[in-house]
Design brief:
alpha+beta; OB fold (Dihydrolipoamide Acetyltransferase, E2P); five-stranded mixed barrel; 2 helices; 24% helix; elongated
Length: 140
């Protein structure tokens, strides 16, 4: 080690270890948080045909069927969802909150919530629509 290296080593050894301990603690907390979010922090995503018997909070992906009725700001917007693949199972949904402009029958949507007494009660403002196929390039 040369003089400069020895001097840098000596300065770092004589400094307070408090900064190092704080920095390592913050880094460890961030690493634990990232691990938690990547492994267990997400909401499971399922299809309407997989909902039967579940009572936990899930993200439900499917296609809007039937005629939506009600007011999303008052008593709730009521509609039904089925699997995108066309499974015959359809689930009644009650949703409160803002409704995306692209929401309509036949559109693929995603809502988060839980099944209660045979009705999927969506969390407020969790309704999302998927982009319609007109935005996808045509195949030739």
């Amino acid at each position: 080690m040369g003089r400069v290296g020895a001097r840098l080593f000596a300065v770092s050894r004589t400094g307070s270890p408090v900064r190092l301990v704080i920095a390592l603690s913050v880094a460890a907390m961030l690493a634990i948080f990232l691990l938690y979010v990547s492994v267990a922090g997400g909401t499971p995503s399922i299809k309407p045909s997989q909902l039967h018997g579940r009572s936990d909070v899930v993200a439900l992906d499917g296609k809007v069927t039937g005629s939506p009725a009600g007011d999303a700001q008052a008593d709730g917007l009521r509609f039904r969802m089925r699997d995108v693949s066309g499974e015959s199972v359809s689930i009644p949904i009650v949703y409160r909150g803002s409704v995306p402009d692209l929401f309509k029958v036949g559109r693929e949507v995603r809502v988060e919530g839980r099944l209660r007494n045979g009705v999927f009660v969506a969390k407020k403002d969790s309704l999302r629509t998927k982009c319609p196929s007109k935005y996808v390039a045509k195949r030739t």
